[in-house]
Amino acid sequence: MTRLDVRGHLRHTLVGTGGVFRDSIALDRGKVMVWQAVYRGAVVTGLVAGAIALGVPENALGLGAGALFVALAGEFQPIGRRWRLMLWTLLWSMLGAYLGGLVSHYALLGVAVAAVVALVCGFVGVAGPGAGIAGLLTLVIFTVFCGIPENPVDALNTALLMGLGGLVQFVAIVVPVMLRNRSVVLSGGEQPVPLLRRLRPHLRLDDLMLRHGIRLAVAIAIATSLGEVSRLPNQYWIPMTVAWMSRPDAAGTVTRVTGRIIGTVLGVLLSIVLLDLAGRQPQPYAFAAIVGVGTVIALVFIWAEYPLAVMGVTVLVIALLALLGESADQSALPRVVDTLVAAVITVACTFLLRPRRG
């Protein structure tokens, strides 16, 4: 891309900043899901509280992540198709967590594998919205556990905990529907086209999603390398945030970046307030309750208002870290700084790696 092209893209972006900001805070009321979010958030909270009750709060992350990801998979799809998407998303997320843990001790290998995983997860969106969500969540969980050093046994344990949490959420969502109308659950609708057949026509360099996968691979590699070199606390936050922010198109990416920054700041502020209300030495179950609050907020707004969903995710992550012994003061400000760094990486890769004109 020439310098003139870059300036043109940036000028277009700056001129549209007001519109992007409005898009970032525009609530889609038709996609606000309150009761579903409360129900599914209660499952996540129950799993976290269960880990605390059993004396293994360190298992809360895997259990909660599995339950949260299953709750996100296949939304707005008929239940006969959705339950399949939930299981596939859970399976791929477990593999992402396991692979991330396996390479977490090897800096160069971790960067290389992260780039490959990002390429695949970014490109797989051509297979449809369900595959795109599964790819995004797989990349997110890979970046998290790639930044948390684990041995192979611990990595497998984490993946299995995710599977357990996801299956609990799966049962909570599917079984009530099955009890009311079993035939609706068992009907899968039209036979889906095999995945490889859907991907093959897009294996060309001018394809939007393949270019997105390549840009995402570069951005994730840079973010992962930065975490490895700097040895920042919770070094996974930067590549994880890049994964959440990146979109196939430039306008969508800028909107997502804006929303992410707004949501992170709001989430940090809300986390500080909630943890302060819990007292100077809160009981572990107070952290579980705050995780529940964050989860419900995230699930209510995830499809309707991205900044508010990010606020919820930030709250639940900070609460989980507090449960594991990290104070809010230690995790709050770094979350904002890491998000800003991730925003710079994401926007730079979006505009500097766009194809040349003409």
UniProtKB/TrEMBL annotation:
<keyword id="KW-0812">Transmembrane</keyword>
<dbReference type="InterPro" id="IPR049453">
    <property type="entry name" value="Memb_transporter_dom"/>
</dbReference>
<feature type="transmembrane region" description="Helical">
    <location>
        <begin position="133"/>
        <end position="153"/>
    </location>
</feature>
<keyword id="KW-1003">Cell membrane</keyword>
<feature type="transmembrane region" description="Helical">
    <location>
        <begin position="159"/>
        <end position="179"/>
    </location>
</feature>
<feature type="transmembrane region" description="Helical">
    <location>
        <begin position="285"/>
        <end position="302"/>
    </location>
</feature>
<feature type="transmembrane region" description="Helical">
    <location>
        <begin position="308"/>
        <end position="324"/>
    </location>
</feature>
<dbReference type="GO" id="GO:0005886">
    <property type="term" value="C:plasma membrane"/>
</dbReference>
<protein>
    <submittedName>
        <fullName>Unannotated protein</fullName>
    </submittedName>
</protein>
<keyword id="KW-1133">Transmembrane helix</keyword>
<feature type="transmembrane region" description="Helical">
    <location>
        <begin position="257"/>
        <end position="278"/>
    </location>
</feature>
<keyword id="KW-0472">Membrane</keyword>
<dbReference type="Pfam" id="PF13515">
    <property type="entry name" value="FUSC_2"/>
</dbReference>
<feature type="domain" description="Integral membrane bound transporter">
    <location>
        <begin position="222"/>
        <end position="348"/>
    </location>
</feature>
<feature type="transmembrane region" description="Helical">
    <location>
        <begin position="37"/>
        <end position="54"/>
    </location>
</feature>
<feature type="transmembrane region" description="Helical">
    <location>
        <begin position="336"/>
        <end position="353"/>
    </location>
</feature>
